[in-house]
């Protein structure tokens, strides 16, 4: 899969996760320990995320505690 398609898919996953959990970028950044700038850039497809950033975001999205 091309990098642009992977970024597009991942950015869509983030957006859907935030929508379902009523989270803004700042809340997502605080809880996932990824900077809000990285989240903005990934969602805008301006940045190919580092594997560590992807791992942190995926880990948070998969194991999100209730209310956070």
Description:
With 68 residues, the protein is mainly alpha-helical. The chain has one domain: 434 Repressor (Amino-terminal Domain) (Orthogonal Bundle). The model has no long low-confidence stretch (mean pLDDT 89).
Summed up:
This protein is mostly helical.
Tag the structure with descriptive keywords.
71% helix, 68 residues, mainly alpha, 434 Repressor (Amino-terminal Domain)
**The number of domains:** 1
Q: Which CATH architecture is right?
A: Orthogonal Bundle
Shape: globular
Oligomer: single chain
Task: Report strand %.
Answer: under 5%
List the helices and strands and how they pair.
Blueprint (H helix, E strand, L loop, with lengths): L2 H19 L3 H8 L3 H8 L7 H13 L5
């Amino acid at each position: 899969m091309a990098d642009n398609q992977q970024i597009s898919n991942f950015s869509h996953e983030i957006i859907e996760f935030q929508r379902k959990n009523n989270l803004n970028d700042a809340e997502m950044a605080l809880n996932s320990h990824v900077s809000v700038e990285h989240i903005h850039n990934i969602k805008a497809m301006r940045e190919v995320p580092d594997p560590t950033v992807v791992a942190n975001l995926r880990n948070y999205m998969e194991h999100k505690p209730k209310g956070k």
